[in-house]
């Protein structure tokens, strides 16, 4: 096949001269590759079929910060329990949070529920079919709106996730480090937009990044872009990432208040903020300096002879590392602010991973 008029142009790339891959070539090669190698994912429509916007939206929210492999069982369970957005809107928030356990970032689950309600009540159960309309919904930012518009409604949209950033940085040999290079990578991705199968094109980019143009050892020999990729000789060094700042450490003290009948006190975290609305064992605020246990005890939910357990519970959040000291004590029967739950029933409550670690720390000790 002969070279098409806009397939290659000669352009300066950060002071170098080289052939810049043309969008028509990249689109054509990606779509041909996608038709043969697309991943079979439970939220994807069959080739040529129309995707269900509810499935696309649900998967995109779940996939934020989580892997495809981890999301699949959650996606199936959600669909089984709430087969439509209207059914999800009618669900109890606690049931949604409980089903979400293990996916982390509970604000997403709360927004998921709020979004389902909005779609159900304000849009008659149908997702808006434009990026602008989608961005008006809770929990839907630029990336997610673009992904749903492209995949569910086949609208041209610039869909840039981590996989796409990597492919585009290599394809165009962008050596400027992330995150500063994000606007440039976005603009370069946007040059690929076109009216022909935009949803498949977006998914082809994602799939290529996930299966061929992987972070380590990209398989350039089988890549459909190998003939036009400027960065393949240095692929493993791209995209360059600015050094990460060390995560700060925060400290807290958690109170495991047990009753004689084995029940333990749980309370709900405030609706706003980290792990909003989830259940927890009561504790101190999480602060920058380690706690003196004498200073921590006034935060105890009940009066008890508190004993510190040896060791600590350590949990990594995105922006900080948390170290929790756990104090155990036997409480009297009365306490208004919280619920008493036997450990075998913890699964009925939306306990975040860090609190499950606390439970394991106590029950395993
Ligand atoms: Fe990635 Fe290699 Fe393909 Fe370039 S040729 S896009 S580096 S897999």
The helix content, as a percent range, equals: 25-40%
Q: Biggest β-sheet: count, sense, barrel?
A: 4 strands, mixed
Total number of beta strands? 9
Uncertain ranges: 1-17
Based on Cα principal axes, name the global outline. globular
Class from secondary-structure proportions? alpha+beta
Output mean pLDDT. 91
- How would you describe the oligomerization state of the chains in this entry? single chain
- Tally the helices: 13
Spatial extent as radius of gyration: 25 Å
> Strand content of the residues, in percent?
5-15%
Note the run of SSEs as H and E. EEHHHHHHHHHHHEEEHEEEEH
Ligand names: iron/sulfur cluster
How is this fold's topology laid out?
Blueprint: E1 8-13, E2 16-21, H1 23-37, H2 53-63, H3 68-81, H4 85-90, H5 93-100, H6 106-122, H7 131-135, H8 142-153, H9 162-171, H10 182-190, H11 198-211, E3 249-258, E4 264-268, E5 279-280, H12 293-296, E6 307-308, E7 313-316, E8 321-330, E9 339-341, H13 353-363
Parallel strand pairs: 3-8
Antiparallel strand pairs: 1-2, 4-5, 4-9, 6-8, 7-8
Helix pairs in contact: 1-11, 2-3, 2-8, 5-6, 8-11, 9-10, 9-11
The protein binds iron/sulfur cluster.
Iron/sulfur cluster binds at residues 167, 170-171, 212-213, 218, 220, 223, 225-226, 229, 231-232, 235.
């Amino acid at each position: 096949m002969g070279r098409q008029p806009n397939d290659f142009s000669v352009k300066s790339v950060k002071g170098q001269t080289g052939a810049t891959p043309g969008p028509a070539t990249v689109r054509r090669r990606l779509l041909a590759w996608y038709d043969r190698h697309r991943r079979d994912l439970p939220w994807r429509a069959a080739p040529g079929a129309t995707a269900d916007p509810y499935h696309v939206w649900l998967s995109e929210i779940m996939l934020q910060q989580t892997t495809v492999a981890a999301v699949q069982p959650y996606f199936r369970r959600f669909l089984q329990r709430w087969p439509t957005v209207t059914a999800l809107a009618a669900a109890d928030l606690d049931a949604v949070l409980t089903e979400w356990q293990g996916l982390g970032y509970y604000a997403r689950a709360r927004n998921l529920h709020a979004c389902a309600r909005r779609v159900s009540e304000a849009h008659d159960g149908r997702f808006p079919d434009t990026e602008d309309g989608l961005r008006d919904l809770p929990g839907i930012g630029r990336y997610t709106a673009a992904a749903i518009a492209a995949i569910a409604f086949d609208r041209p949209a610039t869909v840039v996730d981590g996989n796409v950033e990597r492919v585009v940085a290599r394809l165009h040999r962008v050596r400027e480090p992330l995150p500063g290079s994000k606007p440039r990578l976005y603009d370069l991705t946007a040059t690929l937009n076109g009216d022909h199968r935009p949803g498949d094109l977006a998914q082809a980019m994602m799939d290529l990044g996930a299966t061929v143009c992987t972070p380590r050892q990209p398989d350039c020999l089988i890549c459909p872009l190998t003939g036009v990729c400027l960065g393949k000789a240095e692929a493993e060094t791209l995209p360059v990432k600015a050094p990460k700042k060390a995560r700060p450490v925060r400290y807290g003290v958690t109170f495991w208040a047990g009753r004689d009948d084995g029940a333990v006190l749980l309370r709900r975290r405030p609706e706003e903020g980290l792990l909003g609305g989830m259940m927890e064992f009561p504790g101190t605020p999480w602060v920058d300096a380690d706690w003196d246990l004498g200073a921590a005890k006034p935060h105890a939910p009940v009066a008890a002879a508190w004993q510190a357990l040896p060791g600590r519970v350590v949990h990594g959040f995105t922006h900080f590392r948390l170290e929790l000291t756990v104090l155990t004590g036997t409480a009297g029967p009365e306490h208004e602010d919280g619920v008493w739950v036997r450990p075998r029933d913890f699964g009925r409550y939306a306990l975040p991973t860090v609190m499950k670690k606390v439970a394991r720390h106590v029950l395993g000790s």
